[in-house]
Amino acid sequence: MQAYQAGQADSCAYFLMEAAKGYAQTQQWDSAAWCYNYVLYVYNSQESFLESIRLGQQGLAMLPKTGYLFVRMAMMMAYAQEKEGRLVAAYDTYEQAYLTCIKEQHYDATLGSFLYRPLATLATRFGEYERAKGLLQEWLFQLQETNQNEAIQQEAISNLSIVWLSLEQPDSALVLINEALRLKEGTPLTRGQIYTRLAEAQLAIQNFKEGTEAAQTATRLLQGVPPEEATWQLHNRVAYASAAWLVTGELFEAQLEEDMANQAYLNALSLHDQLPTKVPDRQRAKILVKIARLTHKQGELDVGKKYYQAALASLTGQVGLSALDSTTVFAENTFYEVLPGLARVYEQEQQYDSARWALRWGLV
Predict the structure, then answer these.
(1) CA–CA separation, 310 vs 137, rounded Å?
(2) What is the C-alpha separation between 279 and 59, in angstroms, rounded?
(3) pLDDT at 358
(4) List of residues 6+ apart from 21 with CB closer than 8 A
(5) CB-hemisphere CA count at 13 Å for 51?
(6) Mind listing the pLDDT tens digit for each residue in 291-315?
(7) What residue spans define the domains of the chain?
(8) Are 180 and 158 contacting, i.e. CB atoms less than 8 angstroms apart?
(9) Residue 7: per-residue pLDDT
(10) 277 — pLDDT class (breaks 50, 70, 90)
(11) For a 10 Å CB count at each end of the chain, is N or C smaller?
């Protein structure tokens, strides 16, 4: 612990890894797993994700795939893989943790938030909505059975309602959302999330007035920074506020209030850009595409092109089309939203080869 506090994470890791090897030689697997858990926690907290991945792979190879500490170690490694953009690997590692968790009937609130939720999120990113729905329903059932904090239940409901909306079943989403709103112990953070989901569901059924009211409630709940707010809470609040402004823009655009829609999208982008940079960044790309489409529609071709290219860069880390290949284009990355729009811009500029290339990958 002292080594970590002094910023000597590598020294701390070295001694703990040596200890883990000694424990493994005498088959003291829980003690060895504890060493790996602590080291991965240290490196993840310092955002040294590559080190977490390297040591996590070592731990997965060394330790039996059993026990609560193995589950936690796999979760932390998967988190690091996700942060590094290795989404397929993260999905597989979370899956290992999940299968062990189910087989051995491990469950607590931590496993819900840091296993069920990210595994379901990755499932949606790969277009596996039914799988995501099953995971989130399982998580919500566990929360209700164990009488967990209502704020955590609201979080689970928020995630599950996103899946229902993705499956184009807004009525099912609304049933859940109204259930969440009846819970009394939610925080401004979780209630803001729920009102954003309510706005999205109302938009889906074209109840624009109710949707706008819900979005305004969400932004009101999420504004302001409590002095005791931790960094992760601040990041969540900013991300949720950005999502609330995004749906506000969509509601205005549906009502043909294009200037107000564009301003709402710019608000969403400004908030999102306060978050740590990552690639791929699906949410940032989503916002940029909204702005690009609107400006392009209004005849601002150069501005629209700039935003489409920025959206592409948010997904690949590069502005040009050269970054596109079979390893970068998959369901998660919403290229189907970015590339057809960019193709239309290239077509208007008579850059037909670029337009065809963009369309080719946009149809993958």
Answers:
(1) 36
(2) 27
(3) 64
(4) 32
(5) 20
(6) 998 998 888 888 888 898 888 888 7
(7) 1-122+135-141, 277-364
(8) yes
(9) 55
(10) confident
(11) N
Q: Which residues contact 36 (CB under 8 A, 6 or more apart)?
A: 16, 20, 55, 56, 58, 59, 63, 73
User: Which one is the CATH code of 1-122+135-141: 3.90.1520.10, 1.25.40.10, 1.20.1560.10, 3.40.50.150?
Assistant: 1.25.40.10
Per-residue model confidence as pLDDT tens digits over 16-67: 888 888 988 889 988 999 999 999 998 998 888 999 999 999 998 888 888 8
Tell me whether domains 1-122+135-141 and 277-364 share a fold: yes
From CA 170, how far away is CA 178, in angstroms rounded? 12
| Interatomic CA distance for residues 91 and 129, integer angstroms | 14
The CA distance from 279 to 167, in Å, is 26
Confidence of residue 318 (pLDDT cuts 50, 70, 90): low
The CATH number assigned to the domain with range 277-364 reads 1.25.40
CA–CA distance from 273 to each of 17, 89, 103, 284 (Å)? 38, 27, 41, 8
Place of tokens 């506090």: 5
Q: Which residue has the tokens 């001694």?
A: 15
